[in-house]
């Protein structure tokens, strides 16, 4: 059974080392157990297209958006568009670097909030694709009813399939929009895969996976995303460093709230109780038939009663 947990900062070096080992165990234990459940762990969907190793059909989630994406939203021009390193500049800087480790918590990836933060952060992914483009309205309504902010990691495929919802979410001050990639691929410069999903195969492909969606969000919705989470939340050290060079913070989590929208409501509610100051929880808002919305509603009430406050990621950095 997967029992991830939130981590508080500890005083001594020995406690810190023990905590790090426990955190590594929790993340890897979750990956192993949930990998047996579905190839799309932490995706809340079955990936499709050239970035997938597993292309067998799976049942479409009830309430999914139409398979025919609506016309893109009208382009918006940010008043002060950020300047990013070019693809050629990134290729020149990173092409000969060693891949390093590949996984959920490699060097360069943030897991929790800065150590001085006294609040927790909720993050929810929308992965897109044939089985991941629905909208969990009940979850979003719960957050609004409790006035609880959240950071929403949105994949370009989901955004293209939900133009009207995107405009609504971007306009809602309760939510921060973050970058969940272009095709929902694990971020790698050597083609490493996670849970049967092929990762990007070069520095150039990694750049395109990040910047394709970054530019789409900016061009269509005037969103200057500050955080990036790859498909399956896996990346290698070079990719994490590349994100930093692009001015984006690679962001994962300390508490897995819904295991790719596979946990029942009672388990999601129990996972919510593991959040504490500095924690970052991950869930999904693209699977309305899952137990996520009900579980978050149950767990959120208890968390708020305990005095725990929630912020967006940008409020902590």
Oligomeric status: single chain
**What share of the residues lie within helices?**
25-40%
Main sheet summary = 5 strands, parallel
Global shape: globular
Classification by helices and strands: alpha/beta
Count of alpha and pi helical runs:
9
* Unreliable residue runs: 1-43, 46-79
- Strand order, main sheet: write it out: 4-3-2-9-8
Strand-residue proportion: 5-15%
Average pLDDT:
83
The run of helices and strands is HHEEHEHHEHEEHEEHEH
Distance between the termini: 33 Å
Describe this structure in words.
This protein has 317 residues and is α/β, with parallel strands linked by helices. The chain has helices at residues 13-35, 87-94, 137-145, 156-161, 163-171, 203-221, 237-245, 265-272, 292-305; strands at 102-103, 121-126, 150-154, 175-179, 227-228, 235-236, 249-250, 255-256, 280-284. It has a 5-stranded parallel beta sheet. It has a two-stranded antiparallel sheet with strand order 1-6. A two-stranded parallel sheet has the order 5-7. Helix 8 links the parallel strand 8 (255-256) and strand 9. Helix 8 (265-272) packs parallel to helix 9 (292-305). It is globular, with a radius of gyration of 18 Å. The two termini are 33 Å apart. The model is unreliable at 1-43 and 46-79 (pLDDT under 50).
């Amino acid at each position: 059974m997967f029992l991830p947990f939130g981590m508080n900062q500890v005083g001594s070096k020995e406690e810190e080392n023990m905590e790090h080992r426990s955190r590594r165990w929790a993340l890897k234990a979750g990956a192993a157990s949930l990998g047996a459940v579905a190839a799309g762990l932490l995706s809340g969907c079955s990936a499709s297209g050239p970035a997938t190793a597993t292309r067998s059909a799976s049942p479409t989630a009830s309430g999914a958006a139409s398979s025919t994406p609506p016309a893109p939203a009208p382009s918006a021009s940010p008043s002060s568009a950020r300047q990013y390193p070019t693809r050629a500049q990134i290729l020149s800087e990173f092409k000969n670097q060693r891949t390093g480790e590949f996984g959920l918590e490699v060097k360069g990836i943030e897991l929790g909030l800065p150590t001085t933060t006294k609040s927790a952060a909720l993050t929810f992914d929308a992965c897109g694709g044939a089985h991941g483009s629905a909208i969990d309205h009940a979850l979003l309504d719960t957050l609004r009813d409790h006035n609880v902010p959240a950071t929403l990691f949105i994949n370009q495929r989901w955004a293209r399939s939900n133009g009207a919802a995107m405009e609504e979410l971007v306009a809602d001050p309760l939510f921060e929009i973050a970058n969940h990639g272009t095709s929902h691929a694990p971020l790698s410069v050597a083609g490493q895969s996670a849970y049967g999903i092929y990762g990007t195969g070069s520095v150039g492909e990694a750049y395109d996976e990040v910047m394709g969606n970054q530019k789409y969000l900016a061009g269509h919705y005037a969103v200057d995303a500050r955080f990036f989470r790859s498909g399956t939340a896996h990346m290698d050290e070079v990719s994490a460093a590349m994100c930093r060079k692009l001015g984006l913070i690679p962001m994962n989590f300390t508490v897995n709230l819904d295991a790719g929208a596979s946990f029942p409501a009672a388990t999601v509610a129990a996972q919510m109780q593991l959040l504490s100051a500095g924690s970052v929880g991950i869930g999904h808002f693209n699977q309305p038939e899952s137990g996520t919305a009900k579980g978050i509603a149950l767990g959120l009430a208890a968390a708020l009663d305990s005095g725990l406050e929630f912020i967006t990621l940008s409020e902590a950095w």
